Amino acid sequence: MAVPKKKKSPSRRDMRRAHWKLEAPTLVECPHCHALIMPHRVCPECGYYKGVEVIKVEKE
């Protein structure tokens, strides 16, 4: 198994890990009910996708 000859400094280790951040999900407005939804998914509020009712959503 490969073993490093020299110890990596904490600075190098931390620079490597600098891109492990979490990103907030992208949200778009539903054109039918104007709720925030993830793109390319059926709206859980109204049940519409691309102007067509895909699922029936019961109103409370």
Topology summary:
Layout lengths: L9 H7 L11 E2 L6 E2 L10 E2 L2 E2 L7
Antiparallel strand pairs: 1-2, 3-4
Task: Provide structural commentary.
The protein is α+β, with helices and mostly antiparallel strands and 60 residues long. It is rod-shaped. The longest helix has 7 residues, at 10-16. The protein has a domain at 22-60. A hairpin with a 6-residue loop joins β1 and β2. The mean pLDDT is 93. The strands form 2 sheets. The protein has a two-stranded antiparallel sheet. Strands 3-4 form a two-stranded antiparallel ribbon. 12% of the residues lie in helices and 13% in strands. The protein has one helix spanning 10-16; strands spanning 28-29, 36-37, 48-49, 52-53. This is Large ribosomal subunit protein bL32. Keywords: Ribonucleoprotein, Ribosomal protein. Belongs to the bacterial ribosomal protein bL32 family.
Cα gyration radius (Å): 23 Å
Tell me roughly what share of residues is in helical segments: 10-25%
Terminal residue distance = 61 Å
The main sheet orders its strands as 1-2
Uncertain runs:
none
Most strands sheet = 2 strands, antiparallel
Shape label: rod-shaped
Quickly count the helices.
1
In short:
The protein is of the alpha+beta class.
